[in-house]
Amino acid sequence: MLDDKLELESFLPYRLYHIADLVSREFAKIYKDRLGLTRPEWRVLAGLGQHGAMTAKAIGEQSAMHKTKVSRAVAELERRRWLTRTPDETDRRVEHLTLSKAGQTVYAEMVPLARAFERRLSRAMGAARFAEFEYGLERLETFMLEGGLSDE
Amino acid sequence: MLDDKLELESFLPYRLYHIADLVSREFAKIYKDRLGLTRPEWRVLAGLGQHGAMTAKAIGEQSAMHKTKVSRAVAELERRRWLTRTPDETDRRVEHLTLSKAGQTVYAEMVPLARAFERRLSRAMGAARFAEFEYGLERLETFMLEGGLSDE
DNA sequence: TTTCAATGGTTACATCTGTAACCAATTCAG
DNA sequence: CTGAATTGGTTACAGATGTAACCATTGAAA
């Protein structure tokens, strides 16, 4: 290929972002339709369902969301009574968030949707290639979080 | 793993999106710092540099951007005199966009930055794994654009 | 022709996101 | 202790994005 041109379609950062976006939107369509969740709300629910009780800060860390995003998603889920806040006994800045019964029900619906979606992807790629791909992501993530930052 | 819980950190759509975001932001930092470009502007420039002259519509198709995003990025690049518009001879709705001299200079600066960044990723993953990973993306993309849509 | 649907592109509006400022509570240093 | 710096969390504001409405032009049908 010519050295003074760049083929956008095969440039990895572009490709990666584009495809991630396709996948994410496609999946979001599913849970938005059936459960009325936005992506941040889905993630909060996923965190609480998985861990039982978390602070807003912990949710942000686990799911890579900005604290304002978490704050807003939590407020909305609380409004729908899918979670409740419990003040921490010893540190009154902190609130522990837990899913309500209703929230647990929604979580129980969202898990199989997620599994099914992932299974579709895995099948489309082939299980072996899927695993290999996940490992590639692993490497990429490690690199980005560690060394990637400094110029070469 | 328990069947009624989902491990967010290893859920592919989440992982994929998160890592794509990391990569994209990291790369954006570079060209924003050095060239003062937003992501949509970078993509428009990439399209024009690669193809010479395009309509706004074609740019949107090549780089997977909504037409309003393209419209705004083009307006900004025009304001900086990095591209010019030429009305189509036969269809007066259409404008052909081309890089100005200044625009070509910026393009010439952005290409090596892109290559260098991609090379860093490739090196971090190992060339073989990188290629395998690209192929995985390929499969994923095909699936999303074709069959992925219908419920299983 | 004349009319009506479709197309390239821009703009108005609502929504979402991040930055920064903020509040209350807590911790740490002197 | 007391005051400054830190932390969990919310909110105000500004910027980016998508949806929908729009304008001008073209194509197709009657």
UniProtKB/TrEMBL annotation, chains A, B:
SUPFAM superfamilies: Winged helix' DNA-binding domain. Residues 9-142 form the HTH marR-type domain. GO terms for molecular function: DNA-binding transcription factor activity. It holds the Pfam family MarR_2. Coiled coil: none annotated. PROSITE patterns: HTH_MARR_2 (PS50995). Gene3D superfamilies: Winged helix-like DNA-binding domain superfamily/Winged helix DNA-binding domain. This is MarR family transcriptional regulator. It comes from Mesorhizobium zhangyense. The lineage of its organism: Bacteria, Pseudomonadati, Pseudomonadota, Alphaproteobacteria, Hyphomicrobiales.
